[in-house]
Amino acid sequence: MDGDFEVFVSPVFFLELNRCPNPKLAKMYGQLQRIGFTPLRESDEAAELAEEFITGGVLPATKRNDCLHIAYAVVNDCDVILSWNFDDIVCDKTRNRVKLINATSRYKEIVIVSPDVFLKGDYR
Hints:
This protein is mainly alpha-helical. The chain has helices spanning about 10-15, 25-35, 45-55, 65-75, 90-105, 115-120; strands at about 5-10, 35-40, 80, 110-115. Helices cover about 50% and strands about 10% of the residues.
């Protein structure tokens, strides 16, 4: 792996991160400073795609934030989503339904994997 990656973070990430109590919050922000990343801006397109994901059965409405994370990556043309959320995001059901909705909505396919799989290079 050559290390030439751009890291993007959805606005939902920061909403969720800010719910962490200190000292964990301070530690997480400290770790973020070590990573070069670009925060993505809120967008109506991502919100609309997240609703399509919910309507299309990717995840239930109670998991709207997870759908938003995926939608932000899709509409911003990211290649890969990294997540530790094995129950909702990093699973075959989600991958397959996102792939179908992206195809019917004319978005490109996106890879959804855990960070450890990505770092091993076993994701393509």
